[in-house]
Amino acid sequence: MNIQKNFQTVLGVSTLLLLGACATSMAPANPTGNALPQTSNAATQYGVVQSIELVKQPVATGGIGAGTIAGAVVGGILGHQVGGGSGNTAATVLGAAGGAYAGHTLEKNQQAAQSTSVYKFTLRMSDGNNQVFTQSTNVDIRVGDRVQVDNGVLRRY
């Protein structure tokens, strides 16, 4: 009976942590790897390249990871070994929360090491406005080149 109650407590805390992590905002996914336009205008535009920067972009994640869940479960089990009565429940909850935090931190550090580099182009558009576009390849574009932007993808013309 006591083991079942403890398991239910750990499961409940893990579920709350899982739901809380699902509520975090996510960066827009880029499944094609081509370009992430910074404007909603999908028509062809023209401009001149003002600057090009190589920037690190973190790998997109699908929400809560296995490290967070495993950390919560292990932390809950370890926390349960401490105290007795209502102190035991508090230790279980705190252990699960601390384990989830530690697991999430380890996951973030691992993902940071897996970041990719993308090119950030600043363009002076034909209407005089500046716009920024990001894409995974440079395609032999240099500062000063005239470019055509089709659906957020740059190419020289």
From TrEMBL:
Residues 66-106 form the Glycine zipper 2TM domain. Its main location: membrane. It is found in: Membrane. The keyword Membrane applies. Keywords: Membrane, Signal. InterPro entries: Bact_OM_lipoprot/Surf_antigen, Gly_zipper_2TM_dom. One of its GO terms (cellular component) is outer membrane. Residues 1-29 form the signal peptide. This is Glycine zipper 2TM domain-containing protein.
